[in-house]
Write a structure and sequence with these properties.
The structure is a homodimer. Chain A has 15 helices and 9 strands. With about 400 residues, the first copy, chain A, is an alpha/beta fold. Chain A folds into 2 domains: about 170 residues, Rossmann fold, CATH 3.40.50.1970; about 200 residues, Up-down Bundle (Dehydroquinate synthase-like, alpha domain). In chain A, a hairpin with a 4-residue loop joins strand 7 and strand 8. In chain A, helix 10 packs across helix 14 and helix 12 crosses helix 13. The relative contact order of chain A is 0.11. The interface between A and B is large, with 41 and 41 residues.
């Protein structure tokens, strides 16, 4: 069993009516706040006004960067870093989903470096410091609110690169389930697919690890299966939104990993799809997940599928392992495409095979030789092809 | 659903061969280290020598307080605080189980206050600061390695008082399962009973809360049921010791509580037993737990027992809820007294009913009116009597 370091210092205010602590938390880090957000949904929902009121009440000076894209781009990172340098920003306040928080992490890092922020993603520049980050989450999906990583796109080079630095870990996250009431059915479904895949990437693993963490992962997955359909049906169901929100954080904050050192599989592949076609990350993962599970299934790996099928889907434990395994993939597929209603093929998104070889080559660079089932370029092309 | 704040900043080095990071972590806080430990088992096992070697290698100055008792006493807190003040200690290094870590927390707090440390426990003195604490855990049980609380006994007044202050949260904990290989069968069993009770105190709750946290608690309980017998049978089974160790931390670090605000039941009662009779905390909890579960069972609460029985013990879900509930208590009892082999009655420990009324009165002051089933003095006497 591998040793590991657990280090998740983010403080979380979970629930309604916690925004009254925002000013106090921001004030710990200084006077000048850069508020970062996306396309302006927070203005429509009224969250923007509430946030600004709290910041003003605390006597802090407010600056703004709006328009951060889904699949956030390096241009936004550079724009934010410029404001930080020019205005001598003390603390960043990200209000949004994973894209806004990811982008804000790299803004905080780029505030201390010279030149193009893309140099951070290509590791030409090493991150040593980051401005303190506080966030208010509005979408349950990526888990960026409780981890130290982020993913940035560069449309010029068609690259999408993820990176983690402990200094980018948010200091404080405000998780109010009511802030996700207005999330569309489609984004709710993509979020559920995203968090489910985060757990599967860790759960399907050949490293020996802690049984207790497997039980936690199985519980988190059962939570997603139970509450995603409720949130789709009734977007303002507090219990459903709360369970999905806290699960999204714990799916990827590092706790469930324990000593597992294996590379992830679907994420490197999906990043290549969305780098070129700019699709929603969770949708790309949903399409890949059952094909990847199918492609990796063999006698050496069947035991994990059996455990998954029995403990997550409640499949009859007395059936043959291979039968349970196949049934578990079928039920995963049904959940993603029937229950969540997500599109099930790349063809439906207008994506053909023309870039598969190029995308496979770049995916493999993400460490796929060290994945649950080691994958080379031809394996990845095969999986992409299964997704057509 | 209640809102809550999640804030567990302790960094954990989990696994073998992590002690090489001890010097680096201690050095972050200063040069003068006070090493605290118990009766000297760590000298027999060789851990003491390893720790001293790491401290010396880092060029730090070492001071010592040994002899911290099981059910640690306020005299040890005072003795430790005196050393801190006299030697201007920068950082505390607790090596031991919950008793040593608990005591060290109050040493760290009392280092900043005047007068008798007992004033902290009686709330005459409020804790505002604490010396930084790093610990090396040698017993999986109390979870003190990842929370901000501790319990101190005063033999003169026959009081045993627990208290939490965020500043007492350990900065870093070293959790090496091999350090628990030498824990006796009896202490291993008491530790398992302790952590099981920590979860039950939260799980049996009438507050509405997050389903996802219930799934986590059920997973942690199944982990204890699976691995405690293995650790009893084979004390150097790494997998068993590792699962029990990480489970003990997560049983009580606050994560599983979520928004549950209910008072605990068995702990206030057990503290009164061990305050007078100085028994092992986990043993007292084991004796109380099934009686408390039996006493609280009624139609308004049966649903929680049903969930427990089905999801933790795998009892047939098609049975009547009350039948599942009774069976779940029986299986809990079997686990504690047959599988773990713990003594099952107070009489076996030489405890009679002579102090029950006095103990009940003090237990109730622990907030039992706000417990899973609200309990008054006569209820507590009844539960104590069931334990004879």
């Amino acid at each position: 069993m591998n040793s590991f370091v657990y280090d998740i210092p983010t403080k979380v205010y979970f629930g309604e009516d916690q925004l009254k602590f925002l000013g106090e938390e921001l004030s710990k880090y200084g006077k000048k706040v850069l508020l970062t957000y996306g396309g302006g949904t927070i203005k429509k929902t009224g969250l923007y006004d509430k946030v600004v009121a709290e910041v003003k009440k605390a006597g802090l000076e407010l600056f703004e960067l709006s328009g951060i894209e889904p699949n956030p781009r390096v241009a936004s990172v550079n724009a934010g870093a410029d404001i930080c340098k020019k205005e001598k920003i003390d603390v960043l306040l990200a209000v949004g989903g994973g894209s806004v928080i990811d982008c804000t992490k790299f803004i905080g890092a780029a505030a201390f470096t010279d030149g193009d922020a893309w140099d951070i993603l290509t590791e030409k520049t090493i991150v040593e410091k980051c401005l303190p980050i506080i966030d208010i989450l509005t979408l349950s999906a990526t888990g960026s609110e409780m981890d130290s990583g982020g993913v940035i796109s560069n449309p010029e080079t068609k690259d999408k690169i993820g990176m983690m630095y402990p200094v980018m870990q948010p200091k404080v996250s405000f998780l109010d389930p009511t802030n996700t009431y207005t999330v569309s059915k489609y984004q709710t479904a993509c979020g559920a697919a995203d968090m489910l895949n985060h757990i599967l990437e860790v759960y399907f693993n050949m490293n020996q690890d802690l049984f207790m963490l497997d039980t936690v992962m199985e519980g988190l997955m059962r939570t997603i299966l139970k509450y995603a359909p409720i949130a789709l049906e009734k977007p303002d169901d507090y219990e459903a939104r709360a369970n999905l929100m806290w699960t999204s954080s714990w799916a990827i904050n590092g706790f469930v990993n324990g000593g597992k050192r294996q590379a992830w599989s679907c994420h490197p592949m999906e990043h290549e799809i969305s780098a070129i076609y700019d699709i929603t990350h969770g949708l790309g993962l949903a399409i890949l997940t059952p094909r990847w599970l199918t492609y990796c299934l063999d006698e050496t790996r069947v035991a994990k599928y059996y455990q998954f099928g029995v403990n997550v889907f409640g499949i009859d434990a007395s059936l043959q392992p291979m039968e349970v395994a196949k049934k578990s993939i079928e039920l995963t597929s049904d959940f993603l495409f029937k229950t969540l209603g997500l599109q099930s093929t790349l063809s439906e998104l207008g994506i053909d095979s023309s870039n598969f070889e190029h995308m496979a080559k770049k995916s493999v660079a993400g460490g796929l030789a060290y994945a649950f089932k080691p994958l080379d370029e031809s394996d990845v092309v095969n999986i992409f092809t299964m997704c057509l």
